[in-house]
């Protein structure tokens, strides 16, 4: 069994017995590897966000939070590739890394044969993209709303002049060509839209965001109103 298959099998082994623990020794015997190998595998799964935790004691071991994981997903290879193509459209947006992480988790939860077929099908699909700027959104900007902290940024205007300012993130606005971080700017004492490709430096501070109400007019970008909807 290769390591990828073993990682998947470890998760499923822990899912079957959850919430009871499995010891590293028992997992090592089950997969015919050393205890040290199992410990490395568990560490790798935890670093990827798999909700596995250690339970101490003589009867302890590794436990899986069953409520926060997906069972094997019965997507067809075509459905999986269709979702990958849809998520590809988020490249260069504040949701780029979240989309990639979500897709990896989805594929990892598929049946092994279906996942292999999906990889083969994806290798036959190629996207033709433009040659314009494809700079990534800084991670601190992409996580601005979920982090709930004031940011300090260095921002360049259209003439290239840079200013440093503290901002309170409020939301995102997307257009066909650019993404903006909507925020209360303490320098200007008002709501401003910061084009993400002009944010050259960003630091997340320890200060918790104060509560601010936002109005529909706050989403007005010059000559355009972008409406965001989840449904």
Q: Quote the beta fraction.
A: 15-25%
Instruction: Give a short account of the largest sheet.
Output: 5 strands, antiparallel
Mean pLDDT, to the nearest integer, reads 82
Total tally of structural domains: 3
Q: In DSSP terms, counting alpha (H) and pi (I) runs of 4 or more, how many helices?
A: 8
Q: Bin the helical content.
A: 25-40%
Strand order of the largest sheet: 6-5-4-3-7
CATH-assigned fold name of the largest domain: SH3 type barrels
**Low-pLDDT segments:** 130-134, 224-231
What is the CA-CA span between the terminal residues? Answer: 43 Å
Tertiary shape: elongated
User: Which CATH top level class of the largest domain fits?
Assistant: Mainly Beta
What is the ordering of alpha helices and beta strands?
Answer: HHHEEHHHHHEEEEEEE
- Structure class: alpha+beta
What key phrases describe this protein's structure?
single chain, 231 residues, alpha+beta, Arc Repressor Mutant, subunit A, SH3 type barrels, 3 domains, five-stranded antiparallel beta sheet, two-stranded antiparallel sheet, 9 strands, 24% strand, elongated, disordered C terminus
What does this structure look like?
With 231 residues, the chain is an alpha+beta fold. The chain has three domains: 3-68, Winged helix-like DNA-binding domain superfamily/Winged helix DNA-binding domain (Arc Repressor Mutant, subunit A), CATH 1.10.10.10; 77-122, no CATH class; 139-225, SH3 type barrels, CATH 2.30.30. It has eight helices and nine strands. It has helices at 3-17, 24-31, 35-47, 77-88, 96-108, 112-122, 139-142, 144-147, and strands at 52-55, 61-64, 149-156, 162-174, 179-185, 190-195, 199-208, 220-221, 224-225. Strand 3 (149-156) and strand 4 form a beta hairpin. It is elongated, with a radius of gyration of 22 Å.
């Amino acid at each position: 069994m290769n390591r990828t298959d073993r990682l998947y099998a470890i998760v499923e082994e822990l899912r079957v017995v959850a919430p009871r623990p499995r010891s590293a020794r028992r997992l090592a015997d089950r997969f015919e590897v050393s205890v040290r190998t199992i410990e490395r595998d568990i560490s790798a799964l935890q670093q990827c966000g798999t909700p596995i935790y250690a339970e101490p004691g003589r009867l302890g071991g590794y436990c899986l939070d069953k409520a926060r994981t997906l069972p094997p997903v019965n997507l067809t290879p075509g459905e999986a590739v269709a979702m990958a193509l849809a998520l590809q459209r988020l490249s260069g947006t504040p949701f780029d890394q979240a989309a990639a992480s979500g897709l990896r988790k989805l594929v990892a939860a598929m049946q092994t044969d279906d996942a292999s077929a999906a990889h083969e099908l994806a290798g036959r699909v190629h996207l033709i993209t433009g040659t314009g700027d494809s700079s990534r959104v800084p991670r601190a900007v992409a996580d601005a709303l979920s982090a709930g902290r004031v940011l300090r940024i260095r921002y360049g205007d259209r003439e290239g002049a840079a200013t440093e300012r503290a901002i309170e993130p409020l939301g995102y606005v997307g257009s066909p060509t650019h993404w903006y971080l909507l925020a209360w700017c303490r320098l200007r004492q008002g709501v401003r839209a910061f084009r993400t490709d002009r944010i050259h430096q960003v630091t997340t501070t320890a200060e918790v965001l104060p509560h601010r109400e936002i109005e529909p007019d706050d989403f007005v970008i010059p000559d355009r109103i972008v409406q965001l909807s989840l449904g």
